[in-house]
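Changelog-linked ticket: pyridoxal-5'-phosphate example.
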Amino acid sequence: MAPINENFGKLPGSYLFSTVAQKVAAYRAAHPEAKIIRLGIGDVTQPLAPAVIRALHGAVDEMGRAESFRGYAPDKGYDFLREAIAKADYAARGCDISADEIFVSDGAKSDSADIQELFGPDAVIAVSDPVYPVYVDSNALAGRCGTYDPAAGKWDRVIYMPCTAENGFAPDLPGDGADMIYLCSPNNPTGMAMTKDQLQRFVDYANRTGAVILFDAAYEAYIQDENIPHSIYECEGAKTCAIELRSFSKNAGFTGLRLGCAVVPKDLFRGGASLHAMWARRHGTKFNGAPYIVQRAGEAVYSAEGQAQMKEQIGVYRRNAKVILDVLTAAGYTVYGGVNSPYVWLRTPENMTSWAFFDWLLEEKNIVGTPGSGFGPCGEGYFRLTAFGTYEDSAEAMARLAQ
Ligand code: PLP
């Protein structure tokens, strides 16, 4: 009998969003007339920008002609895309990242789940609490998290960095023993972003201790404040201790197209090994490249026309976040995030648990959000709303909530 990976059996319950979906499906079956507004899952709703569509059409036509047809993409991605990313996302911000340090991928979810393969089985992970569940679950499947305690909602080999109202939802340093530190800023789920000083403290810590920071920048396009870095490489010394993950999903609406990238600097070594060389080997072994047409679409995002259209799209989601923030604040809710992020993180009223508030919101207001406790114990008593719906839906949901 083939032995199975028993770590699957150690994972707690079902994935957060499956539970939400099941509850919504059950409610919908019982109340088919209800007009449910979804402000839960973090998926975009606006169509792809015209510059992206034109690039896709052009690339599809190229694929249909023998002389311009392309097969497998280069392992690390096409140079045209890697150079566009290096120029716009790094050089323009004064970050010394070359195109050759960029690995094009199919998105930040796979990269954030796979990046742990660079580390040994005994490496200790440190995560914010609450946290995007993929970081912990991918390490748990690799057998790195120990045992899950359902009562505490924690694994016994994971260092949790609480993010609470008291510390402004910015994690404190993890103390001794952290090897892989996952940071996400602007943060999912709290919608709060780390300042440059806060991030610099993590970079200094990692360089001092030999830890590696895995920095998820999936929401950087939503940053409005000047003192919030868009990339960890804006911090001094980050190239010797940090890997950055980027996504086209939320900055360009590519959730259905799939495109992202990981930056693994050539200066990053641990145990005498180059993490860049290891990731190149891993990428070549396990990944056959993002589709040519999608990489051309990604390139179009960086054209002048593309950039203007992205700004407009993000502006729509920002307007939604503002109406959610404004109405909730006026209605007396305690709210966080929503300024440098499409996520609004609210305190549940009257000390309701996150799931009790979820049920109340679904049943009484026909609004779907995401219970904060699904992201970790410190998320209990909080609730996440997203700005990715239409303006009409966001405003209507808030009108219902304000009543
Ligand atoms: N990282 C964070 C923090 C996210 O919230 C998400 C999606 O919700 C992802 C990564 C996934 O990004 P992608 O669509 O590029 O896989």
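Closing comment: Example verified and attached. The pocket of pyridoxal-5'-phosphate is lined by residues 42, 107-109, 112, 132, 184, 188, 216, 218, 247, 249, 255, 260 (CB under 6 Å). Residues 12 and 150 are 7 Å apart (CA to CA).
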